[in-house]
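Your task
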Amino acid sequence: MDFSPKTFSVADYVVFALMLSVSTAIGIFYVIKDRKKQNIEEYLLGGRSMSAYPVAFSLSVGFMSAVLVLGTPSEVYRFGTMYSWTLLGYVLMTIVVAEIYIPTFYNMQLSSVYEYLEKRFNRLIRIEGTLLYLLQTVLYVGIVIYAPALALNAVTGFDLWGAILSTAAVCILYSTLGGLKAVIWTDAFQAIIMLIGFISIIIRGSVVMGGFENIWRACEEGGRIEFLKFDTDPRIRHTVWSITFGSGFLFMALYGVNQGQVQRFLSCKSVHEAKKAIFLNLIGLELLTGFALLCGTIVYAYYQYCDPLSYGVVERPDQLLPYLVLDIFQNYPGMPGLFIACVYSGSLSTVSTAITAMASVTVEDFLKPVFNWSDKTYTWISRGMIVFYGGICILFAYLASTLGQVLQAAISVLGLVGGPLLGLYTLGVLFPFVNSLGAFFGANAGLAAAIWVFIGSRNYPPSPEFLDQLSYSTENCPGFENATTLSPLATTSTVTETTSYTPPEANLYALSYQLYTVFGFCWTVVVGVLASLLTCGWRDRKTVDPRLIYPFFDHWIFKCLPESFRKCMTCGVNRRSLDEKNSADFVSFLQ
């Protein structure tokens, strides 16, 4: 274990530069290849001709990638393996998105998922949904750009703003040049880089520690191995319930109603390919998250007796994995560069996904309904919007430094807006009697409630008993006297609790960050349903376009129920039964 200052070699910079060059080359390739046929649909939706495999790769790394690489290992190091229950949340999310949201949106041949809100409710709801999405995405991308750059700057001396600007510049370049096709194929390349990076760390870490059984034993001794916390108290940071349902609802919001991901489904050449993509994406998510969790166990086992945070060689938990990589690969030139490529592949894929999606909704939701311009004009405007949003995201990177640990900050920001947005679409898709007034009041109530709890949690942090943060050892740190030390987070929380007034509602503010999405979703649905009933929304239920409602009780799973009951549950919406169609889709998918 070497705590001397670490720097990059020439080989590391060469490997990193090569990854950026390949990403840029993909964009140049597609601008040359499609230069004669590129209209607005080709540019923003890939001509609706993409197959499931590259789309699945793109989906896997499109949103949680950079956060996953740095945040998940530090989560295991500090809090243990409870976060692994998110793997079950992915499964629940995939089934719901594949069966409900993808068929509804794909069969309407939308360009922007927010078109649905205008068709189902009115234009005001569509604009509100679009604005909420833009706010959520800009804030989240600020975290994605800033956090990896800060971590690598502190550990390696890699220039902070040089890293931020290079990330943004490369994303803007290949996204502007090649459109969605370039973004999807570049994401596929970057997913492979991430897998190679994770596997390299796992293999080298196991060799250094004398086998993975030693790593597991060290984690057990340090209390990091825990899977069966079934507490029902929602204030506890991580339990089986909060992580499974919290991650499930969060990823439903990301993959079911977020333009960045839905845009990829819509680029597939059929609804069958779109469904296949989401199930293949599940495999990718499980692999990437599983590898990240394993890397977290390696970080803890390696630094079991000398915590880099307490010793002062790193300042933030998100810097632990980069520091480990430089430590175990110090005699392997180019390998730290490969890890940097892994981290920045995550950033590139997320940023390119976001700015392309924001350009798409700006054109489709704000410009096309007002101006009757040509496809060529809209294509050039889309390119300009990608550059514009790339610049905005760089500015918002300044705000990310105030939000704390990257994984928790990212989940919190996504959940604040994702929950109400998911609730808004769920009101439209599953409740035929919900009207535009119910949707408006529901979405705003859900958003206000989620923001209220989030701000309250910043002012009144949860007490240490709910955080479950584990202790670290410093007994083998050179010149360090204390055998163990409490985390700075736990100490800070204790001081806050004992020196300031705590209002009764602080129990609500202590809600686990994993449940922000669920909290906003529930408020939106409950208020939306009640407001619709109070404003006589049931009177217009039979006039709703059947294509806008998912036939939940027409699904082949419910075929055993009495026909009269199933008809009653449709609330009077007239549509043909989809039993045969859904059964055929299921058989087709298996084939």
